[in-house]
């Protein structure tokens, strides 16, 4: 198929970190005019491989061939000098600077005295050619996520990169933006750019890639051209024999309850992020209400309003039949509301404190003795053991600082703590984001089990598959408003996706 | 903030003391070189400083006198710093404490000592506390960072004190000296052993013990440590952060206010515009060197007090400008700052 | 209002505003690069003592300014060493630098206490120097004439050059600046040196331009006022000019009121710049974005 030389070829790349072999004799190459997808589970070694290519990591052994010569890439500067550029998942735009300034910062031969107009014209010229339209004078903080990604790509193009590495570029995009990105990539392919595209989503790979390299456990499980690839074949390569079973959600009918656990009536918020507008929502016992939406459309704000972290600017919040509009976080938690966060180590667990101390933070008032002058550690320990047993988990060492626990154990600690109160209402904010397949499955099982025991849950997720398989009801948030509501069986992923991007229901 | 995942294991305290001694030794050597360059005999200077501070009974009492405001203003920084609040306003809080205390001492001068003294101290605490709480409010609502507002309010506080001392409260009998009338005897803090060491020392030491016990044993200490370890997690666990911001700023400011009380009520006996030679700033540095550790604060305060007292020695016996000791103090800070990595 | 009143207020405003203006122009550069320098007071003292001593020794005020600027620049490199190379806490390092400057300047200045110099001469602009009301503007010393051009230069450097862009990027997000191929430590060193030059000039203006003597702690808090001015200006060099005018005006009015026995307390008037700075911050607190550099005061850990 290729009668030209690869633009970049990695041969026999091995890279180990303490306790883990991240890449084991990996071969990988990319040709000009090609979109090469790098597919694999979290932890399969994709990131390490591209970081070696971009000079962030240095391989222990192995060679990198650039065109017809062997090169050493010791830093991102080396990589960019060779024409290798990367768009990270976390964008590196500086919010306070304009698009022009953000792009100028990355130009290789920037003159000492800047002419913003010239740079703006170059941006417009290139963005016109590839469909990357963006206002060059806008400050970066005003751009949407999709626009920020365009600027990141523009930065690479204007800096004359020939090899573009995109790390999970579709994660943050809505369906029509994903289509737009694929058109951009196709245009770049036409102009002879080499694109390395990291993902773990099969349909995307099959839509846009010319060649697919599947990684598993630090090695290359296979490299296929598009024509040879099927969904089933790729899945086989990704997971080997251990194809993870998605827990079947044994659905029980929603109990007809006298009163809902939570009612929001025309709730508005105002503040730094997205403002919620006229949110009306109920959650009944034994029901999971899924919240769909592109991140940044008010999901986090919705969770924070329910948990009492954000004050309402209008409307009413009723928890267990009582007006809770002005309740403090503490009061809401003590009424039986739990929080299952995206990243417990950041949002719920205090690393320097011990497991036991973290447990006590679930409700310090409950464990306080003598008006607060002492803490009843025996009671804390009893509750820790009890909750651990109930969730059928292994007991964590109580005296160990939480920060030294493994990621899985931190998640367990957070669940043990939050579910120790036997919550009636659970707010789950991207509960499986960042977890590997097994961890995600365990978390979903737990949430379903809690629902089946009668808890009501608000499930905020960006994974439509997860939302469809777990939710009893779905709502869609768009720019802080609920723009649609349906039962999963009465709607389609396509319909929800369209609502998420601002389409009109049924239109 | 601090990446608490990989905490560096603590050195044993013996090693820490040894290391600190080495670092400070380096500072003393550099300062000796400075003295040499200025044509002075460093060995004699150090001997004089030592013999007139730590060895001499009266000298040591003066060191203790200087330690009192330093310990209190250092605590004023250390307490809010437990939840990442940066209070550089100790100086202004000290002045406001002195102002409130002076008001109480003047207005209620007729009261007996056992009623007047607690009142003076309480109002001093209140003055410093409220001054700091202004910054606390602005921080709690997310309007202005407390670092900036405490810094700006220092000047305002000093100017307000000047306003009263030059204006309405000026003692008509003290011709050209801007100062208030002398406090009545009942408003003077008791001093001990015929020296100027006053009750403030005891108050400062009790404050240290309370600080330590609250932090390690109580529910509030647990919540404070939680906020210190992960603010977001603390907020989501239902800890009322805004309330703690206010309370800890108030308590910190109140302690700095007590330092002001000690200065007006025990040392000066009246309010003067130049109340403090920068105790608030030195207190900030002391708290910082000690990393908020109570023992470290006491030790650093002792060191700084000796150095400050040494300034007088250098000025009188060696005819050097008194502020030359600032060089020694700064050198010590430099070696510590250059040594340590801060989260 | 009488001509002499306006003229003396104007003169007073220029005299008290200038040193603060220069110091604040330096401070805005370092703060844009992500460093807070609370030791500005010490830098100014070093500039003041060095320029005064040089002027006494050489008899040339121009050499004095030059020496003061150089001393300030070099002195600020101590801060660079601490906060950039050793990644020390910026606030503590700044305060330590202030104490160091106070001590060193006292030591260096001791022999010069009581010396008198001619200092910087006022340059009269023919035809304008004797205008009523505005006259004082045109019989100032060279540093006063250069103040506004200096502010414009700092603005141009920060917002219209590659160096300024990289500097602001370092102040906002050093990791991103590093990724773009710039070296945050190098840029912060440059910024601190440059700011030291300005701080040194500010000190020189004070000792050989305005007061024409040397005294310990003669800056009397002007370094901190400069820090406040940077906040007041929301980190913008041109707005600093207004802040300096305001500050200078408050001081000058105060002196005039005092001289005339007006019933306005000078001390309460003096609180204005600080309260206004706080007020400005409060007013803008609700804004969508704060103007402070996002990485101000943080330590750049490198990319390891």
Summary tags:
heterotrimer, B: about 350 residues, mainly alpha, globular, C: mainly alpha, about 70% helix
Question: What's this model, at a glance?
Answer:
The complex is a heterotrimer of chains A (507), B (343) and C (304). Chain B has 343 residues and is mostly helical.
Task: Explain this structure.
- The complex is a heterotrimer of chains A (507), B (343) and C (304).
- Chain A is globular.
- In chain A, 34% of the residues lie in helices and 23% in strands.
- In chain A, α3 (99-106) crosses α4 (116-130) and α3 packs parallel to α5.
- Chain A has a six-stranded mixed β-sheet with strand order 6-7-8-3-9-10, sandwiched between helices.
- In chain A, β21 and β22 form a beta hairpin.
- Chain A folds into three domains: 8-92 and 161-239, 3-Layer(aba) Sandwich (Rossmann fold); 255-336 and 423-507, P-loop containing nucleotide triphosphate hydrolases (Rossmann fold); 349-422, no CATH class.
- Chain A has 18 helices and 22 strands.
- Chain B is mainly alpha-helical.
- Chain B has a domain at 67-306.
- Chain B is built from 13 helices and no strands.
- The termini of chain B are close together.
- Residues 1-11 of chain B have low confidence and may be disordered.
- Chain C is mainly alpha-helical and 304 residues long.
- Chain C has a single domain (3-121, 132-284), classed as ABC transporter involved in vitamin B12 uptake, BtuC.
- Chain C is 69% helix and 0% strand.
- Chain C contains twelve helices and no strands.
- Chain C has helices spanning 3-32, 40-58, 61-85, 90-109, 142-160, 162-172, 174-179, 184-211, 222-232, 237-260, 266-270, 272-284.
- The radius of gyration of chain C is 19 Å and the shape is globular.
- Chain C starts with a helix and ends in a 20-residue tail after the last helix.
- In chain C, 59% of the residues are buried.
- At the B-C interface, α6, α11 and α13 of B face α3, α4, α9, α11 and α12 of C.
- Chain A: This is ABC transporter ATP-binding protein.
- Chain A: Residues 8-242, 259-504 form the ABC transporter domain.
- Chain A: GO terms for molecular function: ATP binding; ATP hydrolysis activity.
- Chain A: InterPro entries: AAA+_ATPase, ABC_carbohydrate_import_ATPase, ABC_transporter-like_ATP-bd, ABC_transporter-like_CS, P-loop_NTPase.
- Chain A: Keywords: ATP-binding, Nucleotide-binding.
